[in-house]
Amino acid sequence: MISLYARIAGNYFKPLAFRIAYCLIALVALLAAWRQAVAHDLSDLFPPPVLGFFVFLATVILADMGILYLKEQIATWQSSLVPHYRRPHLIVGAVFVAIALCGIPVLVNEIVRLELFPLIALCAVGASLAGWLMYDPSIKTLLIFFAALAFVCFPEVQHRLSLMMAYPVAYIRLIALLLAGSIALFGWIWWQLARLREDMPQYRTIVPGSKHRAMTEVRGAAQGGALDIMAGLIARYPGWRISPRYGDPLDSFLARVSHRRVVTAGGWIPWRLGVLWSLALLLMLICINFAFDANHRMKFADIAPIVFVVSMPAAPIITSSLWMRRASMLPYEMTLPASRRSFIRETMASLVWDYLSCWAGAYVSSLALLFATSQLGHDGLFEILAWNAFFFSGQVAALSIIAWTLRFRSSTLSIFIMVVGSALTLPILVGIAHGRLNYGLTIPIYLIGGFAVLFDAYRRWLRVNFE
């Protein structure tokens, strides 16, 4: 029995994404320990909120990678046929998530000098919400995730969180409530995983069966729940526009690329998804803003910069989510009558097209909101152009990383890279760490490194084994 649990636990060291995460955590711990030995404090380099954010991000990523990997182990035919298959996997997965939530904060607690229990409570809340999104990636969970993200953006909430981190004894009830809520949500996720079956929508869609649609089949706009229908009417091709595309001959490069984009997205329009991202975040911020009293409400002009900054990771997250499912179908598509070089060119062109169109939708909509609130009137023309160039260079860097890692066709690695790519698109971290943005250094590094990695991804895709 012990050897069975040990073998299951050893699976969490086999995927490439977990190995990269373990190496990065060990490297950060060594660098932070060296820094502490030299300067005895990290506050001279980073303020405590930034240190807490990095600890929170690393903890949540590792815990949710464990939840996603556990779902992959449960959503197999063995779980339905092999007796007592699920119980040891669920136990080992729960232990892994608990170690990730407690181990990383404890490891860096003496280094970053943050309060331990409030940090663990915040990490547990973030990991439980993101883990729910990993288990059930639907419109409902996306709206709840947006609501939580919008709630944290308010200064009053951030002030309360900073007080909780500074004076945990005075907020012991809030800390206990956060821990109890996150434990309850984790328990609900584990209960759903224990009863996961092939006929449930949360089951992996790449598993073929009579009750599962092929990934290349586009659902009608009226199929699904009310939220799916509403989102489909906004950001999805109607069936009468998609059907003729399959009947027309694909006799040109652009026609084949457009066809592969429709296949990947299942009818979703990437640029409309980017617009929907910004509008959903704006709506959530406005609704939550009215929940506060008049003295603590934000002005509408102050909401626009938050929407703009949080809309920057829209393209990495949406594109990675779409192409994570598409990657499993690439070996099948290689059997179609096409040379490897033409297939790789069309596939990478459709990936770039999806990414840039999604980013353009989120960027233009959030930028229009800034212009509408007169947030750009105080900056000069050079400053505005430099910011736009920085945002574009960050998107190029994120796109290159996604294209380079997509060939591994690993969902856990895609989640890890999704977060890394999103961090590259956020200028706020660089601005906080350095006090200002060094455009002359950051933009060339992002652009040159991004195009170099993208070209190397194309070369590696030509030699990848799709078996």
Offer a quick outline of the entry.
With 467 residues, the chain is mainly alpha-helical. The chain has two domains: 1-196, no CATH class; 220-467, no CATH class.
Describe this structure in words.
This protein folds into two domains: 1-196, no CATH class; 220-467, no CATH class. Helix 5 packs antiparallel against helix 6, helix 15 (314-327) runs antiparallel to helix 19 (411-424) and helix 18 (381-405) runs parallel beside helix 21 (439-462). It has 21 helices and no strands. With 467 residues, it is mostly helical. 74% of the residues lie in helices and 0% in strands.
Distinctive features:
467 residues; mainly alpha; globular
Let me know the average pLDDT. Answer: 75
Shape: globular
End-to-end CA span: 34 Å
- Summarize the helix and strand pattern as letters: HHHHHHHHHHHHHHHHHHHHH
Q: Characterize the largest beta sheet: strand count, sense, and whether it forms a barrel.
A: none
The amount of beta strand, in percent, is under 5%
- Secondary structure tally, helices: 21
CA-atom Rg in angstroms: 23 Å
